Each structure stands twice: as C-alpha cells, then as structure tokens.
Amino acid sequence: MQSMIIYNMAIRCIYCGSTDVIKYGKTRTGKQLYYCKSCNKYWVKGGIFHRYPKEVKDMIVRIILEGKSVKEVSKEFNIPVATIYKWLKEVKINENN
C-alpha cells in the first residue's frame, strides 16, 4: 500500500514547482537525473546542493527582508553567505515574473 502511494506522487521541479518533469538518465555516480520541461533545468533529486528544505530557505529570506544582515544570518544558522545570496537572487527573479 505504501509503495503505491509513493509511486503515485508526482516529482516536482525544485526550481519552478512544475510537475512537467521527466527522468533524464543518470549521473556518472548512478544518481537519477531529472529534467523540467517548463523551466528547462536539470537536477539530481536529493543532491548535495539541495540539502536545505524550502521552509529553511523561506525563513532565512524572511529574516533578511526584515532587516538582519546576510553576514549575521550566515553566522547564526551556519549557512554560507554565497548560498544565502543565491536564495535572495532566486526570490528576486521569481518576484519579477
């Protein structure tokens, strides 16, 4: 029963949230590669670059938008400054669309 539930769950794009996603082969290390037909991006599900849950990203961005500096948040939550700037850039791009 549980395997049926997992099987029926649609894979969502980690960039745009679309379910118009296909498997796109495997990496050299054997991990499943996915491709989003909506935003034309590729990713490995559960890859090391996606280790922070969306809730954490949203919380960090909200804290910064409320006035705390990126450097302070980076130290407090032990998240690299570059990663936080990337999240802020993603938010800015999404707001412009």
From TrEMBL:
<protein>
    <submittedName>
        <fullName>Transposase</fullName>
    </submittedName>
</protein>
<dbReference type="GO" id="GO:0006313">
    <property type="term" value="P:DNA transposition"/>
</dbReference>
<dbReference type="Pfam" id="PF01527">
    <property type="entry name" value="HTH_Tnp_1"/>
</dbReference>
<dbReference type="GO" id="GO:0003677">
    <property type="term" value="F:DNA binding"/>
</dbReference>
<dbReference type="InterPro" id="IPR009057">
    <property type="entry name" value="Homeodomain-like_sf"/>
</dbReference>
<dbReference type="InterPro" id="IPR051354">
    <property type="entry name" value="Transposase_27_IS1"/>
</dbReference>
<dbReference type="InterPro" id="IPR002514">
    <property type="entry name" value="Transposase_8"/>
</dbReference>
<dbReference type="GO" id="GO:0004803">
    <property type="term" value="F:transposase activity"/>
</dbReference>
